[in-house]
User: Which sequence fits this backbone?
DNA sequence: TGCGCATGAGACGAATTTGTCTCACGTGGT
DNA sequence: ACCACGTGAGACAAATTCGTCTCATGCGCA
């Protein structure tokens, strides 16, 4: 009977990813609930977006924890991270397009912490000699976000099979498109 | 006296990239014109977005032409493409987030043609042995869009120097993050 | 059966945005 | 000097969306 808050948020993210200017009524219908109920759980559009941000933030933190970025090679850690972050890809695809969250320098500090943890992984890989040093850790972090968003969108649109999600991202990010004659 | 239509569109794209829900009044002010004038040139919000799409489409076609994708190695052609597409990056960064354009299967056929040309480049690279075949051409195309958008945003936000734009994208897309002991 | 509770549906005014209009101003060309 | 034209500023109603409210329904539970 009671509404599943997380499920509503996921449906809302999917709807808002498809159409960023969706009406609250459209969001509610996409979540299978009425506008009144949506409004009972989230005070307004801002509150809804904030909740989406918090959920995405939480899932990213969990993915970062589960990936154990400090263990093993940086490459393997990155592969684990991409695999762990897959459930949050839909949410991230929306959040990265929601530049409104970054307006006014009051960006949620949580993202800085996540960025730092990712950049730290790339830095570790660079220091160990696994990753090239001519690509900045900031760019690699942004590129990871961009590829996750692109992959999520490609999957939603049927151009990439869902099962290939993490493979496609990890291989491109780590190895690039270039064919290497000797592995 | 007369308004520079393309300049207005670029300013509008920048404003809408920053805040997708910008008012027409905000868009107009960002372009340095009044709402009345904006409305004289573009019938409404839809018409404005359509014009932005057409401009982005045109610039992509021009970039594809200028890159001469059929000449030389696929790698070099891809590097040329990325360099040529840089001026349109801001526009693309907005358009890729404007999923509204893809609603209802009435997507502008022009994008299909562009996608095809890009996919053809990757296919050529795969057939020549330059690119790996385990990453589909559709994914490589989407990844290119995603990286261009991510890079445009990173530059706008000051995390990546504008002069590194094409290098960062090309190197990551072609060579990946992995360090290769022998070049 | 009867109660509690969350929800769905809809109405209502307020706020915002939009589309259209008018009018005055400034510039460029005749 | 005069006119044509594009523009800025603002007013105005229409349309849309939002926030809040009320009421009825359905389900679980005692």
Assistant:
């Amino acid at each position: 009977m009671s509404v599943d808050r997380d499920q509503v948020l996921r449906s809302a993210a999917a709807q808002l990813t498809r159409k960023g200017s969706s009406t609250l009524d459209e969001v509610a219908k996409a979540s299978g609930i009425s506008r009144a109920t949506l409004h009972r759980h989230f005070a307004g559009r801002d509150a809804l977006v904030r909740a989406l941000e918090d959920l995405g933030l939480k899932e990213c933190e969990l993915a970062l924890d589960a990936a154990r970025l400090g263990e093993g090679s940086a490459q393997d850690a990155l592969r684990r991270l991409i695999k762990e972050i897959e459930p949050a890809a839909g949410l991230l695809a929306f959040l990265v397009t929601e530049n409104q969250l970054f307006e006014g320098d009051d960006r949620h500090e949580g993202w800085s912490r996540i960025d730092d943890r990712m950049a730290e992984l790339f830095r570790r890989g660079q220091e160990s000699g696994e990753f090239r040093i001519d690509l900045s850790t900031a760019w690699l972090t942004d590129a990871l976000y961009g590829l996750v968003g692109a992959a999520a969108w490609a999957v939603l649109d049927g151009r990439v099979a869902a099962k290939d999600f993490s493979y496609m991202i990890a291989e491109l990010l780590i190895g690039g498109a270039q064919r290497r004659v000797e592995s």
Summary: The domain at 56-175 of chain B is CATH 1.10.357.10 (Tetracycline Repressor; domain 2). The CA atoms of residues 127 and 133 of chain B lie 8 Å apart. Residues 45-67 of chain B form the longest helix (23 residues).
